[in-house]
């Protein structure tokens, strides 16, 4: 008859589990892989999304054009020859030349103005988006985390700004300035556009601050600053990024609309909206003067909206 006592002792003594035993000694299998975060999953989804690839390609090209217009044209966008180039038709055989898009009634190259106009339009859109995201995000984070007086104050303030029509308010603000530079237009649009980001951030922070990891961090003695910027902000940032990406195209349209009405960029600054305004008087007989700046504006806005939709689908698990 086999010695059961010896067999049991041998099986028991192989991996004794005691309170003092290290975790590595207790684990018998390989360590599990590190779980992917929301941002890693979102990036994997974005790379597979054709909408993101196309929009990212267009945005990169537009950013390069805005940053280095001299790489695409050497024609002066402000100088014109009204005698030789008055409403000249496009010459499609000369790609990337001054006459590729034709000329306006002042004799200026439309192609050159479209290329140089990308800088101001995209700069205003990106600058306003950054300003409203920083200011609106901070206000929404304070309102959602502290609640009480701060929540009531910021919420009522956003209600007041929501009651002001965006374009009408921007027209009133810009009309008070005699010199309307890019920074003035950016400030006017950011002054009226921060409320949407604030509300989105407030709702995300209210949802996040009751999570278990935030409660645990507070119980362990983490300070308010650490909880806000280390635990709450990274997990409440996804909806803000989606709204900011889609809103960027809206701010580009707002700048072009103001320039079209004569209340946008001044001092001879090149803007797609200003060129569209100049082209309206020739739209019947010379539609090319309107088609090219309007087409570039539409492509730019469409690219950022497509990017926003792709980011929204990647960051929202329910849409996958």
TrEMBL record:
It is a multi-pass membrane protein. Keywords: Cell membrane, Membrane, Transmembrane, Transmembrane helix, Transport. The keyword Transmembrane helix applies. The keyword Cell membrane applies. Gene3D superfamilies: MetI-like (1.10.3720.10). The lineage of its organism: Bacteria, Bacillati, Actinomycetota, Actinomycetes, Kitasatosporales. The chain crosses the membrane at residues 51-72, 122-145, 157-177, 183-201, 232-254, 290-311. This is ABC transporter permease. Residues 1-15 have a biased composition (Polar residues). PROSITE patterns: ABC_TM1 (PS50928). Belongs to the binding-protein-dependent transport system permease family. InterPro entries: BP-dependent_transpt_permease, MetI-like, MetI-like_sf, OppC_N. It comes from Streptomyces longisporoflavus.
């Amino acid at each position: 008859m086999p010695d059961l006592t010896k067999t049991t002792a041998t099986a028991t003594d192989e991996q004794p589990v005691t309170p003092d035993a290290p975790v590595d000694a207790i684990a018998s299998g390989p360590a599990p892989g590190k779980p992917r975060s929301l941002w890693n999953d979102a990036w994997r989804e974005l790379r597979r999304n054709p909408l993101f690839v196309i929009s990212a390609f267009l945005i990169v090209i537009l950013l390069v054009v805005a940053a280095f217009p001299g790489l695409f044209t050497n024609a002066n966008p402000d100088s014109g020859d009204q005698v030789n180039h008055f409403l000249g038709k496009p010459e499609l055989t000369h790609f990337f030349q001054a006459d590729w898009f034709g000329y306006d009634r002042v004799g200026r190259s439309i192609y050159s103005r479209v290329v140089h106009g990308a800088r101001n339009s995209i700069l205003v859109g990106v600058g306003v988006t950054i300003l409203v995201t920083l200011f609106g995000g901070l206000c929404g984070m304070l309102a959602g985390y502290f609640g009480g007086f701060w929540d009531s104050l910021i919420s009522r303030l956003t209600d007041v700004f929501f009651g002001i029509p965006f374009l009408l308010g921007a027209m009133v603000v810009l009309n008070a300035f005699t010199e309307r530079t890019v920074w003035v237009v950016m400030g006017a649009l950011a002054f009226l556009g921060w409320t949407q980001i604030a509300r989105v951030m407030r709702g995300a922070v209210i949802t996040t601050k009751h999570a278990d990891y935030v409660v645990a961090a507070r119980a362990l003695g983490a300070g308010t600053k650490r909880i806000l910027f280390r635990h709450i902000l990274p997990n409440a940032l996804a909806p803000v990024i989606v709204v900011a990406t889609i809103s960027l195209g809206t701010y580009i349209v707002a700048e072009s609309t103001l320039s079209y009405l004569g209340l946008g960029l001044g001092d001879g600054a090149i803007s797609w909206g200003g060129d569209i305004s100049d082209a309206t008087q020739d739209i019947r007989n010379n539609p090319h003067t309107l088609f090219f700046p309007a087409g570039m504006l539409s492509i730019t806005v469409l690219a950022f909206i497509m990017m926003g939709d792709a980011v929204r689908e990647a960051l929202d698990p329910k849409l996958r």
